[in-house]
Amino acid sequence: MVAHECIVDVRPFKASANVTVEDVAKRLMDYGFHAPTMSWPVAGTLMIEPTESESLEELDRFCDAMIAIGEEIREIETGAADPQDNVLKNAPHSVFHLLAEDWPHPYSREKAAFPREWVRQRKFWVPVGRVDNAYGDRNLSNVMFGLGVWELLIILVIILVLFSRRLPEIGQGLGKGIKSFRKSLHDPDEIDVTDKEGEGEGPKKE
């Protein structure tokens, strides 16, 4: 019996087959499932909440997918599958990868794309392959791109909408700032240094 949620511990597979919780989560995408909560509240585990909104049919498919992934892990443990080049380590398999002329893997395209017969009926074609999450987080790349007239107009409209209520206040503040700047150019000793309440000491002259 399972209540609201349960935790599946896949950490032992790290030692037996070099399979991590990320490998299992990404392989689930080949079966058409978004992975459950990963590494929370316990690192290296999957937290599954089966009673939230899924039908019994969907839960049966998910259980079958997990059983199939267990069989794939077993193939690695017994030496039937390559410990590095296997369906788990290369998951998810994108449509571009599956249709490429070059297929260097020891397993078939069939095994990668349709690990169970029912997957054919509602196949989710993954648009991209595996992404190194940690590397991407630690090696950010800035990209500069040119903005066209329409993009600039959209940004301007967004700014106006966000600050429409404060436009009078902003305009008044800018006006005071410009006035003070112009005054300082003619007489630096006359710069207004009072606070916003109008209180405070003026400039001290010796």
UniProtKB/TrEMBL annotation:
Q: What is this protein called?
A: Glycine dehydrogenase (Decarboxylating)
For membrane topology, the record states: Single-pass membrane protein
Q: List the HAMAP family.
A: TatA_E
Kindly report the protein's main subcellular placement as a broad class.
Answer: membrane
So where does this one cross the membrane? 143-163
Q: Which GO terms describe its cellular component?
A: cytosol; glycine cleavage complex; membrane
Every Glycine dehydrogenase C-terminal domain range: 1-93
Question: Does Transmembrane count among this protein's keywords?
Answer: yes
GO molecular-function terms, A-Z: glycine binding; glycine dehydrogenase (decarboxylating) activity; pyridoxal phosphate binding
Family matches, as Gene3D superfamilies? 1.20.5.3310, Aspartate Aminotransferase, domain 1
